[in-house]
Amino acid sequence: MSGTGPADSARRRRGRARPSPLPIRDGVDATRVVLRSGPEMTVGQALLATPSLAGLTAADLRRRAAAGEIVDADGQPADLDSPSRRNVSLYLYRDLDDEVPIPFDLPVVYRDENIVVVDKPHFLATMPRGRHVTETALVRLRRELGSDTVSPAHRLDRLTAGILLFTLRPEVRAAYQDLFASRTARKEYLALAPVDEALTTTVTVRDRIEKTAGDLRALVVDGPVNAISDIALVDRTGSHGIYRLVPHTGRTHQLRLHMASLGVPIVDDPLYPDVRPELAARPDHGDFSRPLRLVARVLEFTDPLTGEQRRFESRRPVSG
Q1: Which end of the chain is more exposed for a tag (fewer CB within 10 A), N or C?
Q2: In angstroms, how far apart are the furthest CA atoms of the chain?
Q3: Domain boundary residue among 38, 57, 92?
Q4: 90-137 pLDDT, tens per residue?
Q5: 4-18, 46-60, 173-187, 223-237: which range is least confident on average?
Q6: Structurally, how many domains does the chain consist of?
Q7: 88: domain range?
Q8: Which candidate, 288, 256, 291, 250, places its Cα nearest to that of 272?
Q9: CA distance between the termini of the chain
Q10: pLDDT exceeding 70 applies to what percent of the chain?
């Protein structure tokens, strides 16, 4: 599920208010690089030292610069030989690595002039990040719909399947994003986990979750509550139970961590309660047989533009 609350979402929108000066290419945004080196390096050297650009050569940079494909935030061509300045943003197109194809469809549940709602499969990231670029819901939709203005109104974790909302026009984007920033959209998930009869009555988990950049897992820490989930056992299938999960906040990995904290970790979770590298690595080798059994089943909200009541439901199975 999405890993932010209202304040985090507002900060993200402010930080992304300025669009990339380079156009989207084949559904993929140009990469923004923040220089971390000062005048002891040239701009070209600082770019070559950037981890996300590993593999680029000086000749690659020269070729891109000559084509006008390395620019600053104002769209002005970068001078690779000028002294670098810390915290200056540059934009360029990154070479796309070969990605393991995600062999599942991305069906459209609903579409009008403002939004498109899809039923995202497991393993498909919402938007490009790290090594997942073209095999993402955003890039797939942009290519399939032939539109570069498609944008996610919220996110689902790569391992989580289910209902995901995108906007189709820039002028309506903020109105739909605010549904999630203000927590006025209602989301309901289903998860498969060990049966615990004590959870047949809804249990509300309240704690504080924080996630540090570079750390795979989120952690429960002391401090004011920022993560709240309602969890209830609603059905059984074989030796496992099906749980209904209703998040009231949106911290990173919130539902996965809350289920593990109750002693009923979600089936095939590679991170909680323990890290399982062999399970996490399966998709990288084309093995998609062990998905995280978590599905964003229902999304409900009052449409901010029309006032209509919207309800969308996933058909992705949570078991078997």
Answers
A1: C
A2: 67
A3: 92
A4: 999 887 778 899 999 999 999 999 999 999 999 999 998 877 889 999
A5: 4-18
A6: 2
A7: 29-92
A8: 256
A9: 21
A10: 94
Indicate the residue among 72, 92, 112 that finishes a domain: 92
> Is 90 exceeded by the pLDDT of residue 248?
yes
Instruction: Give the per-residue pLDDT at 280.
Output: 95
Q: Give domain status of residue 147, yes or no.
A: yes
User: Are residues 117 and 72 located together in one domain of the fold?
Assistant: no
Handedness of CA 173, 174, 179, 180 (dihedral sign): positive
Entry pTM: 0.85
165 with 212, same domain? yes
My answer on whether 67 and 151 are in the same domain is: no
Residues 298, 157, single domain; the answer is: yes
What pLDDT band is residue 18 in, cutting at 50, 70 and 90?
low
Instruction: Please name the residues in contact with 173: beta carbons below 8 A apart, sequence gap of 6 or more.
Output: 151, 153, 167
3-state secondary structure of 259: helix
Q: What does the alpha-carbon distance between residue 231 and residue 188 come to, in Å, rounded to a whole number?
A: 10
Question: How many whole angstroms separate alpha carbon 258 and alpha carbon 239?
Answer: 21
Count Cα atoms within 13 angstroms, Cβ side, for 108: 13
d(CA 221, CA 202): 23
Report how far residue 197's alpha carbon sits from residue 233's, in angstroms, rounded to the nearest whole number: 8
One domain, residues 213 and 229:
yes
Residue pair 101/65 in contact (Cβ under 8 Å)? The answer is no
